[in-house]
Amino acid sequence: MTTQQEVLKALEAVMDPELGLNIVELGLIYDVQVNEQNEVSVKMTLSARGCPLHTSITNGVENVIKRMEGINGVRVEVVWDPPWTPDRIAPETKKRMGFR
């Protein structure tokens, strides 16, 4: 069975084209669940409502997971609560970006 960590690692391939960073290190992934049938459910957000890249990013998430061996289904849900803030960015990424 696929693990949550394996899915998160695979999702590092999905980039936010505006920022040039992957969606995992940006903190856009809120939850990943893998059930006994090896179906994956992802709850994620975007950095802003009305993001013009909404479809591109969510399709990227779905496609990356579908390409993982043994996956039997994918569900991607975009949520807005809690709202995304830069506080969700991974600490090492913040350092690279010059945040203090």
Characterise the protein shown here.
This protein is of the alpha+beta class. It is built from 3 helices and 5 strands; from the N terminus they run αββββαβα. The chain has one domain (4-82): Fe-S cluster assembly (FSCA) (GMP Synthetase, Chain A, domain 3), CATH 3.30.300. The longest helix is centred in the middle third of the chain and has 13 residues, at 54-66. The chain has helices at residues 4-11, 54-66, 91-97; strands at residues 15-16, 21-22, 29-34, 39-44, 73-78.
Secondary structure class reads: alpha+beta
The CATH topology name reads: GMP Synthetase, Chain A, domain 3
Write down the overall geometry. Answer: globular
Radius of gyration: 13 Å
The CATH architecture can be named as 2-Layer Sandwich
CATH class assignment: Alpha Beta
DSSP strand content: 15-25%
Helical segment tally? 3
